[in-house]
Amino acid sequence: MAVVALLAGASAWADEAVTAFSSGTVGRLPAAPWRAARLPKVPHETRYGLVEDAGAVVLQADANASMSGLVHPLRIDPRTRPILEWRWKVSDVPARANFGTRQGDDFAARVYVLFDYDVTKLPLFARIKLKLARALYGEAVPAAGLCYVWDAKAPVGTTGWSPYTDRLRMIVVDSGTADAGRWKSVRRNVVEDFRAAFGEEPPPLSGLAVATDTDNTGSRLTAWYGDLRFVVAP
Question: What is the pTM of this model?
Answer without folding.
Answer: 0.89
